[in-house]
Amino acid sequence: MPHDLTGAPGGVQGAPGTEGAALHWRALEGLYASAPINHMFRSSLEITGEGLSRITFLVEPDCFHAAGAAHGTIYFKMLDDAAFYAANTHVTDRFLLTTSFNMHLSKPIKGGRIVAEGRWVSGRRRVLVAESWLLDEDGDECGRGTGTFMRSRIALSSLPGYSVPRGPA
Fold first, then answer.
1. Is the pLDDT of residue 70 over 90?
2. Which of 3, 80, 113, 119 is the most core-located residue (most Cβ within 10 A)?
3. Which residue in 139, 77, 78, 143 sits closest to 105, CA to CA?
4. Angstrom distance (rounded) from CA 40 to CA 1
5. Which residues have CB under 8 Å from 9's CB, separation 6+?
6. 7-21, 60-74, 144-158: which has the minimum mean pLDDT?
7. Considering Cα of 126, then 37, then 65, then 56, what sign does the dihedral take?
8. Separation of CA 44 from chain center
9. Cβ(124)–Cβ(148) below 8 Å
10. Cβ 120 vs Cβ 10: under 8 Å
């Protein structure tokens, strides 16, 4: 079932006043790309608007359990990351931490291109809530999750992968 992200809370990319936010989003994309764990997967993050994320994964047989489908750890990784980055679009100074994550697996992933989409739901100060879902190559939902994320003491600006491009001086 396709999901309509145009009515998501927090607006969409291209809305007035998003120029500074777009710099933050690009920096979050850089942070994702720089994380050592993400070098283990063929994946990429795109922040598609405020409170919205999309991660494309190529799920290959090295991620399968003994019965020939993606192991649950792969579902968790994709769902958690999509929800996390959707939530972190609302926090420009601190790295978020996952404090709780619930997921429901509805269809085996037999491999191929999987899209994890995330959407911020609520919260902006201490605790944020976001949801995510997985779509296979046919557009069928394979799983969904909801997580809570809290601000850490880690400044985003202190992380090597988080780099906000600077304009001309």
1. yes
2. 119
3. 143
4. 29
5. 51, 119, 120, 121, 122
6. 7-21
7. positive
8. 10
9. no
10. yes
R_g of the chain, CA atoms, integer Å: 16
Share of the chain above pLDDT 90, in %: 80
Nearest to 29 by CA among 47, 48, 56: 47
For the sheet containing 112-122, what is the strand order?
A: 42-49, 52-59, 112-122, 127-135, 141-155, 94-105
**Residue 63, CA atoms < 13 Å, CB-side half-sphere:** 24
Residue type, 126: R
**Whole-angstrom distance, CA of residue 77 vs CA of residue 8:** 23
Q: Which of 124, 117, 58 is nearest to 82 (CA)?
A: 117
- What pTM did the predictor assign? 0.86
